[in-house]
Amino acid sequence: MSRRWGPPLPERHAHCAGLPDPFARPQLDHHAPSFALTPQGPVVSSDAWSQRRLAILRGHTWQPVTADGWHREPRWAGGQLFTLAHGRSEQSATGLAGALPPGPPTSDWLQPVTEGLRLGEVHCWDGSRPLRPKRPATAMALDPRGEPVHAQWQETGPGILHWGQVRIALPPGARVQDLAVSDDSRLCVISLRSGQHLRTLCLTRQGKTVGPPTSLPVTGHAVWVSPSTVALLVSTWPSVHPTLWNPHTGSIQTLNRDRVGVAETLGAADDGQLAFSWTTPDTPRHLRRAATDAPDPPPERRAKASTTRQETIQGHQGPLPCLVQDPPAEPRGTVVLFHGGPNGAHYATWSALGESLTAAGWRVVRPNLQGSRILDTTLAPGPPSRYGAEDVDDACLVTIRLGRGTLVVAGHSYGGYIASRVAQRLPVVRGAVLISGFLRITDLKESPEKQVGDFLHSPRVDPTLDPPHMPRTPHFVIHGDRDTRIPVAAMRRRSEHLPAGSEYVELPGEPHGLTSDTAARAAIPRLFTWLDKR
Question: Is the pTM of this model over 0.85?
Answer without folding.
Answer: yes
